[in-house]
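Readers of this paper often ask what the protein records in our data store actually look like. Such a record has a labelled line for the sequence and another for the backbone structure tokens. The tokens are whole numbers drawn from a learned vocabulary of local backbone shapes. We quote a single record here, exactly as it is kept in our systems:
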Amino acid sequence: MAKFLHTSDWHIGRLFQNISLLDDQLHVLKQIHRYAAEHQVDALVVAGDIYDRSVPPADAVDALNAFLARFTEELSIPVIMISGNHDSAKRLRFGAQFMSGAGVHILGDIRKVATPVEVQTQTGAIQFFGIPYHDPVEVREAFDVEVKTYDEAHTHLAELAAQARSADVPAVLISHCFIDGAEESDSERRLSIGGADRVSYQSLQSFDYVALGHLHAPQYKGAEHIRYSGSLLKYSFSEHKQRKGVTLVEIGEQGTSWEHLPLIPRRDMRVIEGTLAELVEQGRSDPHADDYILARLTDKQDLLEPMAQLRQVYPNTLELERTQFSVSHGSQLVADVSAKRSEDLVFKDFFTQVMGDELTEEQNKLLLEVINEAQAAMEGQE
């Protein structure tokens, strides 16, 4: 039986709200190292977006170098990675020929898509084919074929890999792409405009397992063995409900199986909701008060420096939302001046649509006083 870990979208060096996540990333990379040792896997597969930028900062490069050196030296487990849309394929694969001798295989050249990395296990060999991120132009130029869409380009590469696999040897395809219909998150960089980046899954089905990267939510699409492992961490508040982890894959005589292994973050990314007073009180006893926080305040009245108050108990509060001031889609907030409606009625409608409530008797009295004073002042200027 062959076993390997499937992970992707590390985005090493990423900043979130101008805060470096490098320490958070190193924290969970240690857990991947531990999982690999505990489960005695035959390989570690990383399906793209190793770095967050095509020209990563020096500390991100140092972090990856240290992880790979320790992983391969201590565990003697090969690492197989492809480049993603955030990576520079050429920069990432610098020295790839030399590093492959040390067990680090960087697949960043689409021209070598039919050349697998073959790993020997206790039960025999397993082949890993890699499709790094690409666009149709790159595929046309590399293979002199007429492909116009992302789907056609990706299908062409997948078919080349499928044709190159050895008979009776398990084969894994690694790809960084957007399978049509899969769930996306706010933190993913769009590959193209208008959904043109979507690719179909049909050409992938013949592989024993397909290790995907690019989308940050753990999921499968098309067939259960065509899977996204999800990102290393939560990289936006839109991901706050996602369970991050790595996928442990086993391929044997009975077929392919997989298991989600959770990654426990140093600081979670959470959304909390309530009045300012409730959240401040909650924060005083919250054992995870250092988490990255988006606070949704339900207060109806004006608040004095709510962010400063929240950061007294939740120091990593990064975003603030006022739910009572949010406007539902399609609400009409523009007064129809031509209708000659009185100022107080226009304001009352505005208040009701924004606040979801009507003016109290005291508020209505105050409104009329303000309107009368304003009108008197305007008449005095005429």
User: Anything to note?
Assistant: The radius of gyration is 27 Å. Confidence is low (pLDDT under 50) at residues 326-340. The longest helix spans residues 361-381. The longest strand covers residues 124-131.
